[in-house]
Amino acid sequence: MTTYRTMPFHLETARLALRPWAESDAADFCALLAERGKGTPAVEHIRTSIAELLAATATTGIALLPIQRRDEGDFIGYCGLIIGRSTVEEPEIAYELFQHAHGRGYATEAAGAVLDAAVATGRKRLWSTVGAWNTPSLRVLEKLEFERHHASMEDNGEVVWLTRSLP
Fold first, then answer.
1. Least C-beta-crowded within 10 Å: which of 52, 94, 101, 138?
2. What average pLDDT does the segment 23-49 reach?
3. Which of 51, 67, 59, 44 lies closest to 114, judged by CA?
4. pTM listed for this prediction
5. DSSP per position, 124-155
6. CA–CA dist 123, 89 (Å, integer)
7. What sections of 35-166 are H helices per DSSP?
8. 137, 130 in Cβ contact below 8 A?
9. Nearest by Cα to 11 from 52, 66, 71
10. Is pLDDT above 90 for 156?
11. pLDDT digits (tens, 9 = 90+) for 70-104
12. Tell me: the pLDDT tens digits for 55-73?
């Protein structure tokens, strides 16, 4: 198995800062997940999820990171690398933003920084899986030069699998 360098866990762009999770992110993370329309998770459950994310980061060397706008300092979502439906060798890029932050290029900006971080680890390919209905996310991935690989049917509908080779 190839050994990969640890992903940088502090990333900055012109407008955004991505950093490791803190317990203080739990309430904002709950509010973000509530926008999915399936209820609001309990803060204690989210604190446990944050601890699990931090433990996975320590094990894998890759991370899902909270996104803050640099000027405002507010939490607007997350972006990073996960194992998800893939592998630690070829992880998935994942992101989710509050609806009020949609349409401003933040997802593309954050995902571009994570893409650069993935290159720095020495990985050669990333994946992403997106609901076929999620046209805005598919556009973000298209801008980042991901290409459709295949689609699968899951309990919640059609999922598009995309991939991108890294330099």
1. 52
2. 94
3. 67
4. 0.94
5. -EEEEEEETT-HHHHHHHHHTT-EEEEEEEET
6. 7
7. 43-60, 106-121, 135-143
8. yes
9. 66
10. no
11. 999 999 999 999 998 999 999 999 999 999 999 99
12. 999 999 999 999 999 999 9
Residue 158, SS3?
Answer: strand
Spatial CA neighbour of 80 closest among 105, 109, 115: 115
Residue 49 to residue 46: CA distance in whole angstroms:
5
Q: State the Cα angle at 96 between 85 and 124, rounded to 5°.
A: 45
Query: If you average pLDDT over every residue of the chain, what do you get?
Result: 96
Sheet strands side by side (includes 75-82): 11-12, 16-18, 64-69, 75-82, 92-97, 125-131, 157-165, 147-154
**How far apart, in whole angstroms, are the C-alpha atoms of residue 110 and residue 66?**
10
Cα 73-107-76 angle, rounded to 5 deg: 30
